[in-house]
Amino acid sequence: MRRLLNIPFAPVFVGLFLVGATVFSGALEPVFDALSALGPPPIPADNPQSVDEDGYPLSDDPKVELGKILYFENRLSGDASVSCADCHSDQFGWSDGQDLCLAYQGTGNWRNCPTVMNAAYLDRLFWDSRSDRLENQALDAATSAVEGHGNQEMMEERLRQIPDYVARFTEVFGTEWPEKEDIWRAIAAFERTIIQPDTPFDNYMRGDELALSPDAIAGMELFTGKAACIQCHTGPLLTDQKFHNIGVPDNPLFASDPLVQITFRFQQYMRGVPEEIYRKAKTDLGVYLETLNPEDMGKFRTAPLRYLIYTPPYMHNGAFFTLEEVVDFYNQGGGSDQVEHLAGMRTRTSLLRPLGLTENEKRQLIAFLESTSGEEVKVERPVLPEYAVLETHD
Amino acid sequence: MLPLFALALNGCGENPVHDEAALIELGNYLFFDQRLSGDGSISCATCHDPNHGWADGSPLSQTYPASDGFRNSKSLINVSSRTVFYWDGAYSGSDPSEPTAEMITGKLFLNMHDYLLTERMKQVPEYVALFERALGAEPSFDGVIQSLVAFQTTLTTGDELESLESASVQRGRDLFGGKAQCSTCHSGVRMTDALAHSTGVPENPIIFQDPLRHTAYRVYLKEHEVEDYMTIGQDVGRFAVTKNELDRGAFITPDLRQVADTAPFMHNGVFSTLQEVVRFYDERGEGLGLTPTEMTDVVSFLENLSRAMPEISDMPSPAYQVSAEWLEVSN
């Protein structure tokens, strides 16, 4: 696929010693190793799929092809009205372009829709990290009452009425009939092909110092220096995958949209939030819903900073529609703690302080943030197979 | 996962009724409110329509969207005197709470999440007020069921009509209890023995030809843990519940008090007129030997059983609202 050199970033040495060179020398001392290029995604041993010689998943694997069709399969949802691809569409950066995610018919959503792009690399999924792997994330979203509202038994029987699926499941999984667990294995295998490790940033990190514009390089220095983004946005995914309360302002829809309010309360009730908190909360309590530990109130997993130019709006509630707004937010030192009265303590991070970025520096920082996107990845929409018309058995 | 404050908010068991009329009014609203279904597209009245005798007028009922039904929708008329529910008799007793709850949460029916329903109710100020008046409590799933059960007690037919019975009706009554042997099973005040019988009603083939219906039927069999459900080509009826071979193809005897208003007939709607039903019984087995006139008389008798239907109208559903003081009020 491409030559991979896992060489740490060394912008100072690039500038001073390596002008004109195409490949870093491994002998150079790194200034820091917090950023690196993206390699192939991890493939779980219990859900294998074909990869190329460099370890990148192949899209012509029958399991991936099956997963791709299922990804677009609206009949997995309760009333057959939505598929994975409706909220995670390649037309919107494998998200949906909304501030708060699209929802199942008759319901509202309450969080921004995370992109499927590069989700294969994440240790855990969802803004509150409640899912440990893509297989379980897909199941969770497809069966949630406000997302897919599908029922696994129903899905399984629907697929069994579709001869093309029966043949494909048999080919891929060796079973006589489609089995529900394999739906999620196939979809996850497809999602592991939705990656973009070929970005200007990655190529720069691999040694092509011409891959980034001077503005982007300056932005990277701000990212790792004055703007201090690197405190949380580290590693090849540019996230520590940890939880922080940065005081993102509430989405105004929380106060104005009845469907959002219904789902907001439903989520808390579902997750077992104590009544006192359920009664008082007016803002998303984040990973607290997963841990029920007051120290986690208002904390969300640090977002990966890849594919950003295709995935606005940003933040867990889509509060910001442009990267300029995001940078302005951090330049002000983040937002105020909105959960202190509920948590009985301050959970907002102390890592954020006003940055004093100039307009030019903000522009450079955004140039860097845009450099981690790469070419837009789109797929051809598959043709969904049809139900069979059945004969009587006797 | 059971929420920590399940007792406080959702209630285990029923709330004491403060105002029965308010409870019935609430149930009347909710019966026609499509937000009781998962995607907000259907209500109780979709399959229990007052314009179709509180059934739906189709051979096979519809289901939640993207599936389709494999049984005839049972009329809810006089349901509060019923002692066994569903064609397969899955529920019995005098309390319709359980089948009512299953109709709301069952994936083939309204497919509604009970907690989400509670939160939807809380978003409608008129409902919040009715819950408070009726039960002295905030909206809850149990309260929804209580109100729908209370409403169903109003779905009763009126007194016997004061009209002279025709000679045909009188002959039909005699035949019903005599030569036609109907009262063997259609006995008692409700004209049902509330038991399951296999009478050899022909299969409705569309259940096994239409993938949406076949899917629903298989899901039903799978839910009831019926073995070999992938290859069963007939409706097993009460067998799905009891696993007793004697119940294979057996269905609960329907009551006949308002039968003429609830066509089509039988568990799978294969007969669209009472004439067809009577002819079926006349011809099955060794035959009853009814003459054409006698069959007409039995039909006359059955038609004469109908009484005045309750006058209940579709209540327009009040809209969701957002409180202007959302930040200040308790959730």
Fold topology:
The complex is a heterodimer of chains A (394) and B (331).
Chain A: H1 11-17, H2 62-71, H3 84-87, H4 134-143, H5 152-160, H6 163-173, H7 180-191, H8 200-205, H9 214-224, E1 243-244, H10 253-256, H11 258-270, H12 275-280, H13 288-291, E2 300-301, H14 323-331, H15 340-343, H16 359-370
Chain B: H1 6-9, H2 20-31, H3 44-47, E1 84-85, E2 91-92, H4 97-105, H5 114-122, H6 125-135, H7 141-152, H8 167-177, E3 196-197, H9 206-209, H10 211-223, H11 239-242, E4 251-252, H12 274-283, H13 292-303
Antiparallel strand pairs in B: 1-2, 3-4
Helix pairs in contact in B: 2-6, 2-7, 8-13, 12-13
Description:
The complex is a heterodimer of chains A (about 400) and B (about 325). The longest helix of chain A is centred in the last third of the chain and has 13 residues, at about 260-270. Chain A has about 400 residues and is mainly α. Chain A has a two-stranded antiparallel sheet with strand order 1-2. Chain A has two domains: about 60-190, Cytochrome Bc1 Complex, Chain D, domain 2 (Orthogonal Bundle), CATH 1.10.760.10; about 215-370, Cytochrome c-like domain (Cytochrome Bc1 Complex, Chain D, domain 2), CATH 1.10.760. Chain A is built from 16 helices and two strands. In chain B, a hairpin with a 5-residue loop joins β1 and β2 (about 90). In chain B, α2 packs antiparallel against α6 and α12 (about 275-285) crosses α13 (about 290-305). Chains A and B meet through α5, α11 and α12 of A and α5 and α10 of B.
